[in-house]
Amino acid sequence: MHDAEQYLLRVLRGFVLGEDPGDFTGDWQRLLELADMHSVRGILGHSVMSFPHADSAPIAQLMRRQCLQTMAFFSQRADAMARLTEALSAEGIDHLLFKGYVVRAYYPIPELRTFGDIDFLIRPEDRARSDALMKQWGFEPKENWEPVFSYLRGGEFYEIHSHVLETDISERADYRAYFSHIWDYAEPQSEHTFVLKPEYHLLYLLTHIAKHIHGSGAGARMYLDIAFFLQHFGDSLDWQWFRGELEKLDFYDFTNMVFTFVRREFGVESPIPLRKVDEQTYQDFVDFTMSGGTFGKFGRDSAVIQLKNQDIQEETVSRGKTLLRRFFPPASQIERRYTYLQGRHWLLPAAWVHRVLKNKDLIGRRVQEAQNIVTADAEEVLKLKRIYQEIGL
Questions:
Q1: Statement to judge: residues 280 and 339 lie in one domain
Q2: Domain containing 233: what range?
Q3: Domain-located, residue 127
Q4: Same domain as 308, residue 273
Q5: Closest to 268 (Cα-Cα) out of 114, 105, 390, 106
Q6: pLDDT in single tens digits along all 393 residues of the chain
Q7: Do both 334 and 197 map to the same domain?
Q8: Residues 92 and 175 in one domain
């Protein structure tokens, strides 16, 4: 890691523990860019305001302004969500709150936990009523792919889910089936507003991180959520139940890496025993985390990611298989989007044609993707595979 990456982790650790991260004598422009990548610029500003140092004086005013702007903006977003939950309740629509909107309450300054969208879950049978309510409130539908429906109005962006997991994150367990019972773990806050049982919510947050890593990556803010979650609940959770669920999902290796990262970088001890992680694997994981930003999109070669996902347990690079799967995906991969495939996999050729027609404007991009897959660096693919194998994905 470079100086900026190391210092940003010190800032985040200081935010968790209330500690001074010390002086930064590196490239402030790079540090600001990195904070933007990981969606923690407000936290960096808070650090500069709380622990002023001589070398940060030239940008202290900028950071103070950005911190206060972040707090004001996300306070407004939270207020808007509170009004929406009231409207949903007035219509008798059950809604389950999870992820960032809930976890923000565990931060010392909730308004510094940023989010691009706010997610909540509804029961599938309430889809039509929730859609009508969102349109009545002036929201523009942006995405309408079961099981996720997104709506935009000005600076407000919501994702309404009827299910919370579209794809499995590894072949170790049936994660989709496991999280299809999410309502069984819902705890009421009011007649129609629910949150998740904390132990189950933590399992979901870990799975959500794994889903993003499976796709392209997960940045520091996702691990910061875990740090504050563990710090907030401490020993009050049923950790025996939690460990039992990890065994059911064969998810201990990944949780071990996440909790190790949280302990080493943010100073929050693990509530469960941890196995020692190979130091080179750990450093590769930290570099991978810090280089990609919040959702691992920065500087990533998507071809390398796609090649990594093909035969992930094999020490090979399967370019041909990857190309075939990219352009002719199996029914199990796309039946959530093309729902007429469910129970009718013999319609798969029709779905391939449908998919091409629906995405005809992207043909040029798909051709470029194919070229990138053919020319991708095999060593990078194998290195990434080794990281994923070591962390249990």
A1: no
A2: 72-292
A3: yes
A4: no
A5: 106
A6: 689 999 999 999 999 999 999 988 888 899 999 999 999 999 999 999 898 876 666 788 888 888 999 999 999 999 999 999 999 999 999 999 999 999 999 999 999 999 989 999 999 999 999 999 999 999 999 877 778 899 999 889 999 999 988 777 777 888 988 999 999 999 999 999 999 999 999 999 999 999 888 777 789 999 999 999 999 999 999 999 999 999 999 999 999 999 999 999 999 999 999 999 989 889 989 998 998 888 766 766 666 666 666 665 666 667 767 667 777 778 777 776 777 778 788 877 777 778 777 776 766 676 667 676 666 666 676 777 777 777 777
A7: no
A8: yes
Residue 392's nearest CA partner among 238, 274, 219 is 274
Q: What is the DSSP string of 30-44?
A: HHHHHHHHTT-HHHH
Query: Is 237 a domain residue?
Result: yes
Q: How many residues does the chain have?
A: 393
> Looking at the 3D structure of the chain, how many domains does it have?
2
Residues 176, 167 contacting (CB under 8 angstroms):
yes
Are 253 and 324 in a shared domain? no
Q: Are residues 287 and 325 in the same domain?
A: no
CATH code, domain carrying 281: 3.30.460.40
Q: How far is CA 306 from CA 9, 294, 322, 384, in A?
A: 29, 19, 7, 11
Residue 186 has what DSSP assignment? E
Domain boundary among 268, 292, 316: 292
Domain assignment present for residue 137? The answer is yes
What is the crossing angle of helices 198-215 and 252-266, to 10°?
A: 90
Q: Identify residue 340 by its one-letter amino acid code.
A: Y
The answer as to whether 343 is a domain residue is: yes
Taking Cα atoms as reference points, which of 83, 84, 76 lies closest to residue 159? 84
- Are residues 192 and 233 both part of a single domain? yes
DSSP label at 254?
A: H
How far is CA 150 from each of CA 30, 119, 143, 158, 324, rounded to the nearest angstrom? 33, 9, 5, 6, 30
Q: Which of 240, 267, 292 is the last residue of a domain?
A: 292
Whether 147 and 238 map to the same domain: the answer is yes
> What residues are paired with 186 via a beta bridge?
196
Give 99's contacts (C-beta < 8 A, 6+ positions apart).
Answer: 119, 204, 205, 208
**For the CA atoms of the chain, what is the radius of gyration?**
22
Which pTM value belongs to this model? 0.86
Residue 150: count of CB within 10 angstroms of its CB: 19
Q: At 157, is the secondary structure helix, strand, or coil?
A: strand
